[in-house]
Amino acid sequence: MEQFVAIDGAVSAIATVIESRPVLVAIGLVIIAGGAAAAYRWLRTTPGERFSELVADREAAVVLMHPNPDPDAMAAAMGVAALGEQVDTEMTIQYPGQIRHQENRAFRTVLELDIDAVDHVTELAAEDVILVDHNEPRGFDGCDGILPLAVVDHHPGDGSGEQFTDVRTDYGAASSIVAEYFSDIDAVPVPAGEHASETNASRVVPSFTATGLLYGILADTQHLTVGAAAADFDAAAYLQPGVDEDKLDRIANPEVDAEVLEIKARAIAGRQTQGSFAVSDVGTVTNADAIPQAADELIRLEGITAVVVIGERERTIHLSGRSRDDRVHMGRALEQATTDAPTASAGGHARMGGGQIAPQTEVTDGGETDQEPAMNRDRLIEEIFASLSGDV
């Protein structure tokens, strides 16, 4: 009985407010209705439409890749830049680190990719930053202070964009996500040798961009054989009409650097094995991009189901792992193996992972600074084997 009295009292109070302040009530109802309508429109729009609208509201933006960008990162960046340029936004692609892998250099050269290196946050070309193929800025001075406008990625992580976050860890490549953005806005791939005007479309995927995005998908999924989702196949099929096969072949078959071949040989000859797991320390290298290429070779050996290759460049230890073993999630294995190294950064997917261990800076009694390895490589190998075996 008391509950009914309370409800009756509340209803009476609401009625009194409506009678005494009808204008305020009407305004409140309009606000609620407007919010509901906005939410409905937001739910009805696709990620590609929302992303294009966000970029269109900016005069300029930076598309920022991860350190030492690979084809998927470069392809996703050129795709985002092409989207921005079609809505009259000035886009600049930037990256920390180097581009040394022959495949990556060929990608940049063949597709005439206009990108700029960045060593400090003050060198960013615009205030608004869009991260592609990673979700937390890293690799240059001042990067910790960046609050990205948007994030487009397929790697696990805690990073997010201030106004837009699209992280799809079930996708094999970030390029597939960007290809979907083009599809969402009904963009038409432009066939190689044709002009965009011949498509009679208001939005297009330039042939250079379609070629890059397809190669980004192929590179990150080992030609759609490892870690590829249905969405990656769909994206590849969508892009195909705009692909320049000659350029695709030139990127896929560049000249191989002699050091890369030497490091591959070192990795095979110097491998340590425990059961079906292999770890190889290739020592000091001048080209860190040779390390993942060596891992690609090592995983092809008969009887080997998971591999990690270690190398050191300028006192920084680089790791690259590959797995075709359902017992081994390579990203988590590398993260676990480097837990005790305070300067380590490692992770990745089930089939593919990587990481770096930067040197530690120590101050001597005389006040001088010195850089020492943050983790002994012999101990690191032991930790990797333990992590691969689940003995942690």
Automatic annotation (TrEMBL):
Q: Name one Pfam family in it.
A: DHHA1
Query: Mind listing the UniProt keywords for this protein, alphabetically?
Result: Membrane, Transmembrane, Transmembrane helix
Q: Does the keyword rRNA-binding apply?
A: no
Q: Where is this region: Disordered?
A: 337-373
Which Gene Ontology MF annotations are present? nucleic acid binding
The DHHA1 domain is annotated at: 275-358
Q: Which residues cross the membrane?
A: 23-43
Q: Which SUPFAM superfamilies match?
A: DHH phosphoesterases (SSF64182)
Q: This protein is called what?
A: Bifunctional oligoribonuclease/PAP phosphatase NrnA
- Domain DDH, residue spans: 62-192
Which organism encodes this protein?
Halonotius pteroides
- Keyword Membrane applies: yes
